[in-house]
């Protein structure tokens, strides 16, 4: 079931189109990556979804909401560069934002304790935010976005400014939180999207070029490529492999032979028969899975 449906969404600034006719749905209980290079329109899209920016055209419809209902009750949003009252403790801050979200003081306090535990900073609950690390602040930011139990949690580049340890902690937290809510996060870091997302929205120059489950998209853009590792002198096997009519090209990359084929079944049979008969020192032979980076470059280049 879709949490939100977006139809023909557009945004222009002084006549220049930043977002161009977006159509997509976000499915409940998924982690969705809004992936694209800097300037693709990701932040503008999130700001429209969060109600912070009015679309030039198009509609955004949340499930279980009336047409004129305030959508802020159903969403949580963490901007790329969140700001906090550094003189407050983490717990004080969450109680404060909970009351802003119309929770009673008791409800806000209970929810604050629950979330501090959930995001892993309960031991720093009474510490001033000014002394938090970058990773702790991002965790606190996610907690404040979750304070009112939203249907959709939106995170703008949540790990781009973190060190490797902080990045790992936040990615693990996002993986855990999808059991409670749908998560949409923007990123230009391909590895992060590939690691934790279920679905993908691939954005470039203000348009969604591809969307859907990441595994299905990888299959769709799968290239017919074999990866072969030979123990000794792999470069001497390039011409031998190119001699097969089922093979279009072969190159050596970081000690691996990457073999482009036009007939996978035939190439597999020919190569394995040759390796057996000629006693190749074969270590690895497998169909190479298309990486997100390869898929991204293929789609963007047209």
TrEMBL record:
Q: Name one Pfam family in it.
A: ABC_tran
GO molecular function annotation: ATP binding; ATP hydrolysis activity
User: Where does the record place the ABC transporter domain?
Assistant: 4-230
| UniProt-listed InterPro entries | AAA+_ATPase, ABC_transporter-like_ATP-bd, ABC_transporter-like_CS, DrrA1/2-like_C, P-loop_NTPase
Domain of life, source organism: Bacteria
| Keyword terms of this UniProt record | ATP-binding, Nucleotide-binding, Transport
Q: Check the record and name the SUPFAM superfamilies matching this protein.
A: P-loop containing nucleoside triphosphate hydrolases (SSF52540)
Family membership noted in the UniProt record: Belongs to the ABC transporter superfamily.
Extract the PANTHER family matched here: ABC TRANSPORTER RELATED (PTHR43335:SF11), ABC TRANSPORTER, ATP-BINDING PROTEIN (PTHR43335)
What is this protein called in UniProt?
ABC-2 type transport system ATP-binding protein
This chain's source organism reads: Gracilibacillus halotolerans
